[in-house]
Amino acid sequence: MSHEVLLGLALVIGFYTCWNIGANDVANAIGTSVGSKSLTLRKAVVMAAILEFTGALLVGPEVSLTIQEGIVKSEYFADPMIVVHGMTASLLAAGFWLQIASYFGWPVSTTHTLVGAVIGFGVAIGGVEAVYWNQIYTIITSWIISPLMGAVIAYFAFSLLRKQIFYQVSPLEATRKIVPWLTGAVVFVLLFVLFFKGFHGLGLRLSLWETSPFILLLSGLSVLFSMRAVSKVEVTSQTRSLSEYQNPMLSRSLYGALKHLERAQMATTGTDHAQIEATLATVNALREKEDAKLPPDMHAEFSAVEKIFSYLQVFTAGCMAFAHGANDVGNAIGPLAAIVHRLEPSMMLSSTGYPLWLLLIGGSGIVLGLATWGWRVIETIGQKITELTPSRGFCAEFAAATTIMLASNLGLPISTTHTLVGAVLGIGFAGGIGALNLRTVRDIVASWLITVPIGALLAVIFYKGLALIA
Amino acid sequence: MRNSILKLFGKSPFEALQTHMQQVAECVALVPSVLKAYKAQDPELVAKLAAQMSEIEHTADILKLEVRNNVGSSILLPISKADILDIVTLQDAIAGKAEDVGFLLTLRQAPVPEDFAEPFAHFVERNMICFRSVKSITAEFSELLESSFGGSEAKKVRDRIDKVALDEHEIDKLHNQLLQKLFAQADSIPHWAFYIWNHVLGEVARISRLSEKLAFRIRTILELK
Questions:
Q1: Which residues of A touch B141 (CB under 8 A)?
Q2: What was the ipTM of the complex prediction?
């Protein structure tokens, strides 16, 4: 088989893998925002397309490099064609297994399959010395840590919101006070995990230190911006100021005070008795005044709170789409880059020794998958999952985006879906969601155990097949 | 579709609880009407209303099974499953009492004891108000879920629950007064009429007693310091 045909085949399969990612996985980043009515379907698809592509372009190379060079010691193989066949077989194996899993509805991770496939072909062809086992251990550890990290961050984020906003007498006022600072913190954390390894792009090479003014500036601006935005939100049915509504804690305290005063009154005589009676009259008047006030319309307040959080949710959903593009596109582009590097070294042109056109192929594959099939999955998620209100969705997506972005910058390929599941469970344990099906966790763990071996096995089978044909 | 996110979210039992309560309320709402028909000595209307109440109670039963089916062992909820099951059982019991009242009235047309009709109508109305208070408490489930069953919203609900308990105490006193009136005339009314009025008083009173029990059961799911 000539190099051109092999290259063509590899590109087609790589494109197909990216199409698969766009069709199935992207929906997880964006779908819950459609379900909570923070975004319309159309806006969600457009936003996802843009951000996935950008994420893939800007941060994708880190993960891609790990898969290219960090798993199999390709120098170990005397004949570079072995690596070409092996990587092509890995891509074929991943695509095949994902197709089967989609058909049966099993929660299989794209990332796990591909990494398993690459390990598989490495071991099968070169034995145990052909694989960087240290790196494998790190990667597998990250697969376990990422859902846990998502869960922990989401748990604490929601617990904070629960106490500081939802438990308060006026959740809307509490939201107005807290959201600007929350926005600033969120922007800061997300920018930090984005830039903590510095910024290599647009012809610049900046360290974290050099990007920090930019991070601080954006965080500060976001605080100011959200302060203005938040002051404009009105509760439609509450047109008066807070002091005109009943304060249940005040009512209860006054009632308690009255009971004690009545007891004191019965235990005294003379001037003391008269004094207490006067005090009783004053406190009673206060209580009557308080009881006559309107009870706050909690339903309207909660709606306003959720409306404010919907903007934050859209922002974090966008960050998640970006992080997802960075992490998952590397899955497909990694093997492709390894193939191109050996078949046509002259095509590997760019300032970082990394081909831009490959990333473009990957990015456009994702966008096409999203446009042809992915939007249907987003629509389904949007229709069926209405439980994740913006405040909860924001916590889950912030936790997931932070974790995924961190992993992407560290060059670790993780499962974005599983991270999001961990985050949602974290919120569930913090008491934020009506009902969660824990059987899904069991299914996911089961899929972990079989995906890597099966990916490896399939890669070996496809490799043998390719070696025969090519 | 191999989508874990879709499979992760279960069906919320709180919505099902509210739908069930809606049916219970429809059943209970017919109690004043069926008693009025009985007082007006209209056995056909009484029978019709009693049959209606039976139908509604049956629908509520089916909804109760729905709630029970959605709290299996692998579902994670913000409150304990035992709480949900107890709440739906109590709600269902209230509908059962209303149905029992309807049935009692179809047995035989009894004469109304002296000096009884007005205080009895007042007693029935107080029971209805008590039930409606509890129903409005269950309507707060969405707000409670949003605020994770704690904080200011929970305190607001707790205050309403305490009011229900006070109401029930007053209704108990009215029940006793009506029983005394009935027993004072025990010799002058037929034994079967005595039986019917005695039991109707009991079943109607149980509506408020169960409402209070339900209210207290809801109190235990609140996160209060």
A1: none
A2: 0.86
